[in-house]
Design a protein that fits this description.
Distance between the termini: 67 Å
Strand content: 15-25%
Shape: elongated
Number of helices: 3
Radius of gyration: 23 Å
Order of helices and strands: EEHEEHH
Strand order of the largest sheet: 1-2
Number of strands: 4
Length: 85
């Protein structure tokens, strides 16, 4: 685990030390996600957040695309409407 000292400057800006930016592969303009957990602040890259979400959703993945599923559902609904007339 890498530990470094940071300082809050004007406007509430937090300056991340170079060694932290290098370790996280952050460059100027990159977005990060801040998470406050009690008195701890976590900084995550957007890539890390997306990866974590994908891992959590992986068990729900199907072979069909969501678009295909929606089209099939709409066709079933349309068929039921036609039969009900």
């Amino acid at each position: 685990m890498l530990t470094a000292h940071a300082k809050v400057i004007d406007g509430g800006r937090l300056v991340l030390p170079a060694e932290i930016r290098r370790a996280m592969k952050l460059e100027k303009g990159d977005s990060v996600v801040l998470e406050l957990d009690g008195d701890e602040l976590r900084v995550r890259t957007m890539e890390a957040v997306v990866r974590r979400i994908q891992e959590k959703l992986r068990p729900y993945k199907t072979d069909k695309s969501i678009v295909e599923e929606l089209i099939e559902e709409r066709r079933r609904e349309a068929k039921l409407e036609d039969e009900g007339r």
